[in-house]
Structure formats: C-alpha cells, structure tokens
UniProtKB/TrEMBL annotation:
Pfam families: Rv2466c-like (PF22234). Gene3D superfamilies: Glutaredoxin (3.40.30.10). This is DsbA family protein. SUPFAM superfamilies: Thioredoxin-like.
Length: 214
C-alpha cells in the first residue's frame, strides 16, 4: 500500500441506550474491535423506554420505574447533543455517560449527565433536554431504524454491518467481561460468520453472571 492509498474502513452501525449495562459491555468490545479490524463504529441512539412503552404492565415495578423520566433523560440529552453539535459527539458522550452510570455505579442521574456533558466539552444547557420532547421524533426515528433491521423481539444493542447481499444486522453479542485484543477480533469474526449465514437466527445460553466492568 502506497502513502496515497488508504484502506477504507467498514462502517459498523451500533444502536445503544445508555441505561443498558449489557449494551455498554458490547460497546466497549466494539471499541476494542476498532483497534484490531478495519472497522469504524457509527453510534446511534435507541430507547428501552420506547421499546417497552406498550408492555409496561408486564414488567416488574423496578424496571417500569427505570423506564420513566429517569430512563428518558439520558437518551434525550444524547439525541439533542447529536442534533445540535453533530454526530461525532454521540460516541464520546456515550462513553462519558456509560463510564459513570456503569463502571462508577452512579446510575443515570442528572448529576451524571451534567458531568458527562462537561467532560466532552458540551454546553451544560443541554441538560434541559432531559425533560423535553423536542427531539423525541428524531429519537424514535433512530430507534426504529435500528430495531426494524432485527425485529421487535430484541433489545439493545443492535449492530448492522454491510454484507455481500445487503446489511447484516443482529442483537448483541451479550458478553462479559469485555474481550480485548485477539479475543475481541475472534469474537468479531465469528459473530459476522454466523450472522451472515442465511436463515441463521439465534445462539443462546443461560447467563450465569452479571456484567463485569473490568
């Protein structure tokens, strides 16, 4: 490869809700994959509140509470930041939020959102969008773009990658702790292999432990 030739990276679209610890684990794996494969992650918002809004009565009380105003706040602020300051801030803000919510175990509080905004150099005024529905239409469109690729029977994260016969989209993988280095590469290669197989739908086993934010 000459100095004038640059290998084009494969775009990987990743939908997340900052609330979800498993999506956070997968997102940190994708950050590792960027180091070992020629891929570039494009971050998008989806919402567990939107996903579950028609079946709240079926959910445990603690989960219903999480999907209320507390659950709407982070995604609303992220989508507002994206709309006002460009898509390039999405991944940075997600990292700042996720580190505090999950690794630091602070939860999705207004203080956490304010700290995350400050870390990535975004205006504190964006916190006001935590209680605003101004960009809910955009949020729902982003959510639907991801979920429509895989169907309604999944959650977050959703990943979509260009394939030989169209986009290959899937939920997950659900993994803990975050694979790194060669392990991250192997999981990426294997996930693409099975996900791109026509007619392939699911591999699953019982989770025996929770997310490990190592």
């Amino acid at each position: 490869m000459t100095d004038t030739q640059v290998r084009e990276k494969t775009p990987v679209d990743f939908w997340f809700d900052p609330l979800c610890p498993w999506a956070w684990m997968t997102s940190r794996w994708m950050v590792e994959v960027e180091k070992v494969r020629d891929v570039e992650v494009r971050w998008h918002v989806m919402s567990l509140a939107v996903l579950n809004e028609n079946k709240l009565d079926e959910l445990p009380e603690t989960y219903r509470e999480l999907l209320g105003p507390k659950g709407w706040a982070p995604v609303r602020v992220v989508i507002a930041a994206q709309q006002k300051h460009g898509e390039e801030v999405t991944g940075k803000l997600y990292t700042a939020l996720g580190t505090r919510i999950h690794n630091d175990e602070k939860g999705p509080t207004r203080e956490v959102i304010a700290e995350a905004l400050a870390e990535v150099g975004l205006p504190a005024e964006l916190l006001a969008y935590a209680d605003s529905d101004e960009y809910d239409e955009v949020l729902r469109a982003s959510h639907n773009d991801g979920i429509d690729r895989v169907g309604q029977e999944v959650g977050t994260p959703v990943i979509s990658v260009p394939g030989a016969e169209g986009d290959v989209a899937f939920f997950g993988p659900v993994v803990t702790p975050t694979p790194r280095g060669d392990a991250a590469a192997r999981l990426w290669d294997g996930t693409l292999l099975v996900a791109s197989t026509p007619g392939f739908y699911e591999i699953k086993r019982t989770r025996t432990k929770g997310p490990s934010f190592e």
